[in-house]
Write a structure and sequence with these properties.
Number of strands: 9
Protein name: Putative 3-methyladenine DNA glycosylase
Structural class: alpha+beta
Pfam families: Pur_DNA_glyco (PF02245)
Radius of gyration: 16 Å
GO molecular function: hydrolase activity, acting on glycosyl bonds
CATH architecture: Roll
Keywords: DNA damage, DNA repair, Glycosidase, Hydrolase
Largest sheet: 9 strands, mixed
Strand content: 25-35%
Distance between the termini: 25 Å
CATH superfamily: Methylpurine-DNA glycosylase (MPG)
Shape: globular
Organism: Occultella glacieicola
Length: 208
């Protein structure tokens, strides 16, 4: 693993690929679970019609306009939580959606959480998709604005550790984004580790 912290003051489109292979650890309810990130999506606030922050700050998205290194957690369609890492300069809404990962520690707890929330047939599927990833890490709207630490010995609620650069990264259009923000030619800001079995099923629409 790299011992160099990621520069979270960078905008999402610059940071996103550097998060691939990184490990995020949650310590929720006294249980530690670690996920290796294999798929992410970048969102660019007021410059991005696909972003929740496109029309400016609201009570829901205000954390995106705050300092980098915090979580933006929202509830999708009133059903599922999704977690984003806020990045970029303070005051500029920029965030990376954590779309999919591999549970590499705390598998029993991740499996328990996933089974409590619904069906989970294989360990490959524990964090294979943004809602599943949030469940595996135990993240809900309660954790919105939580700090994500990067110190090597961090023991807070959430910590992030950089990983080795993937051998091959693919990109494509973002999933579930309609209108102008769903234009894959302009906003091909979904990135994943090519060939990794924990990437979501949408990977087939990508490009190099």
């Amino acid at each position: 693993m790299s011992d160099t912290a990621l520069d979270l003051t960078r905008r999402s489109t610059a940071l996103a690929t550097e998060l691939l292979g990184a490990r995020i650890t949650s310590r929720v309810g006294g249980q530690e679970v670690t996920v290796r990130l294999v798929e992410v999506e970048a969102y660019e606030g007021t410059d991005d019609p696909g972003s929740h922050a496109f029309r400016g700050p609201t009570p829901r998205n205000e954390v995106m306009f705050g300092p980098p290194g915090r979580l933006y957690v929202y509830r999708h369609l009133g059903l599922h939580h999704c977690a984003n890492l806020v990045c970029g300069p303070d005051g500029v809404a920029s965030a990376v959606l954590l779309r999919a990962g591999e549970v590499v520690a705390g598998t029993d707890e991740a499996r328990r959480r996933r089974l409590a929330a619904g069906v989970c047939r294989t360990d490959r599927d524990l964090a294979r998709g943004p809602a599943r990833l949030a469940v595996a890490l135990g993240l809900t709207r309660e954790h919105n604005a939580a700090v994500v630490a990067q110190a090597p010995d961090a023991v807070g609620l959430l910590s992030l550790e950089p990983g080795p650069r993937p051998a091959a990264v693919a990109s494509g259009g973002r999933v579930g984004v309609s209108g102008a923000g769903g234009d894959a030619a302009r906003f091909g800001w979904r990135y994943w580790i090519e060939g990794d079995p924990h990437v979501s099923a949408y990977r087939a629409a990508g490009r190099r």
